[in-house]
Amino acid sequence: MSFQKKVITIERHIIEGERAHPGATGDFSGLLRDFMLACKIIWREVSKAGLVNILGAAGKENIHGDQVKKLDVFADDAIYKAMDHGGHLCVMASEENEDVLHIPDKYPTGKYVLLYDPLDGSSNIDANVSIGTIFSIYRRVSPSGKGTMQDCLQPGYKQVAAGYVVYGSSTMLVYTTGDGVHGFTLDPGIGEFLLSHENIRIPKRGKIYSVNEGNYRYWFDGVKKYVKYLQEEDKTTNRPYSGRYIGSMVADIHRTLLYGGIFMYPGDTRHPDGKLRLMYEANPTAFLVEQAGGRASNGNDRILDITPKSLHQKTPLFIGSAEDVCIAEEFMQGKRQLQPVAAS
Asked: Does 233 qualify as catalytic in the annotation?
């Protein structure tokens, strides 16, 4: 039996993509190579977490008041140490740290900026639910030397790359550089991410909605009406939808990207601005989903057009298949109301 498909590693894919752009220096491929190493180190620890004394709380809270898990601390540190010395970055920012993370003085600085959520879904660590790492890359806007807050606070449409790694039944990297979305699965035998999902396209409309319905009583009317709309039976619009909610954003986004539908984390009466972080969660996933043909909104505005005011700014999020998100926006804006569905 002969194999028709060539084996493409993530490094080969990045390098071949960079060769297509005249004037490329190799800095970007080097940056992503360092980041992939950090993710492999995190995967190694996640995969053996039940065998070593690494599960559980670290005994402190992060700036958002959430309990910090030991793996959160490990992942945050692993990424910073893998990225601080390569000369590709001028500054970093992490969801686990209040301020920007500067490059140590002993190392050179570069022309890129990295923002990351080291371990999304970490509240599920002890239950062995899929968790992940989310990242976002920008070009610096400051002239030279150490990076600044200004470098980090750029709107999402200025991202040059974004992606996530989901640590689940298999470990998979999904990323975009603004030229489509591609997925790579880690082969633990050789320690390489191999191309497994080329040019991912999200369906224009799906049959799955993903939201924490335990917050229903606190939702605004638009969200309640939209979810009720999805639950109604109407064969002409392929309803009702199925509800699927993992509670680990990176896993819910991954399923939505592959199968279509919509993931929602709306604002409510307790948290009008939602709970997801614009810079570390909403922007990178919005860039990915848009590159795959989908849509991402806060209910009124395109996520990637929002000008950030702070590193840890929060936002409501409606993301997924373009048609599903458009209908959700109509409900959020009061442009659509529930209509009686004809009996079948």
From this structure: no
